[in-house]
Design a protein that fits this description.
about 200 residues, 6-stranded mixed β-sheet, globular
């Protein structure tokens, strides 16, 4: 059996908590423009434990119903998360999302308004995406934007090691935890704080 120490993933000085893939997903939106100044939006979905970006969905408009459909697709691929964290944007508080969360028996936590630091992992990811891709590329059209985002996402997940993951890539970190059958205690990317505001879901 492979140990966490063998993989360089044990972090000293942290409380032992159950920390496995799909414990918590974080969602957020970014925006950019095509060459002709037409705006488009990007939905980012991350697994906070292994820091893997599960999706970068680009379109000119993304509704709450579209977010729910994309989450359905991700659940089929990765399994259902224990909870999802987002801001209070209209897409994330829409009836479509409230219905989706209730039907899936999934906890959805909203951070306090004006406090993006409460969802720090995806804010850090957004900064990397902005600095390394969105600010560096010129997007001719939606197809071009999707292609360039896919290339950057592949590099982020599969090529670049992360110091917070014991110098493993997010994809390697996920495989390590899957080999350990989900028994990874205190292994990866523990949140420094969980000061988001749990709110009940209602239709």
């Amino acid at each position: 059996m492979l140990s966490l120490r063998d993989h360089g993933l044990v972090r000293r000085g942290h409380a032992r908590i159950r920390n496995i893939c799909n414990q918590r997903w974080s969602l957020d939106f970014l925006s950019d423009t095509f060459g002709a100044c037409r705006k488009f939006r990007i939905l980012a979905v991350n697994d906070d434990c292994c820091r893997e970006n599960l999706a970068l969905i680009a379109d000119t408009s993304i509704s709450g119903a579209r977010v729910a459909r994309e989450l359905d697709a991700l659940v089929r691929i990765y399994g259902k998360p224990a909870c999802i964290v987002s801001d209070n944007g209209t897409e994330f508080t829409s009836k479509a999302i409230l219905k989706w969360a209730n039907e899936n028996g999934l906890e959805w936590h909203y951070i306090d308004p004006g406090k993006p630091q409460q969802n720090g992992y995806i804010e850090s990811f957004n900064g990397s995406l902005r600095d390394e891709c969105l600010n560096e590329e010129i997007f001719d059209n939606l197809a071009d934007a999707r292609r360039k985002l896919a290339l950057w996402r592949y590099d982020y997940n599969n090529v670049r090691p992360h110091s917070s993951l014991g110098n493993k890539t997010p994809a390697e970190a996920r495989r390590t935890l899957e080999l350990l059958d989900g028994n990874a205690h205190g292994a990866l990317a523990q949140p420094e704080t969980d000061h988001y505001q749990p709110q009940g879901l209602s239709l």
